[in-house]
Amino acid sequence: MSNIDEPARPTGELMIRSVTMPADTNPNGDIFGGWIMSQMDHAGGTAAIRRSGGRAVTVAVDGMSFISPVHVGDEVSFYASLASVGNTSMKFLVEAWRRPRHSAESVRVTKAMFTFVAIDNDGRPRKIPLLA
Fold it and tell me: Do 44 and 97 contact (CB within 8 A), yes or no?
């Protein structure tokens, strides 16, 4: 059953799609929340690297709550959309959506705001280039 407040489809650009495996489960047999958060960090980090044109590191994650469980065999897609850009930092809304094995309907699992800082080769913050 879907919540009327939940969007019907993901926002942002598809960054990662993965099928969950038994090794990704918690002791209860559901997909471990830490696995989902890690994949979201990968998705947001990829978007941050593309936008900043180089290295970027995660500095904060805000507002994550799990809406729907993920089961073994579900296809999980991770989307990222740019929310804001500062001098050295960027915020991306990252969403995780699951599609059960034998269904065409996707359901949002969670979303969170990820903040990244662009860094140079010495690990110091660097200015994010303007887009042309």
Answer: no
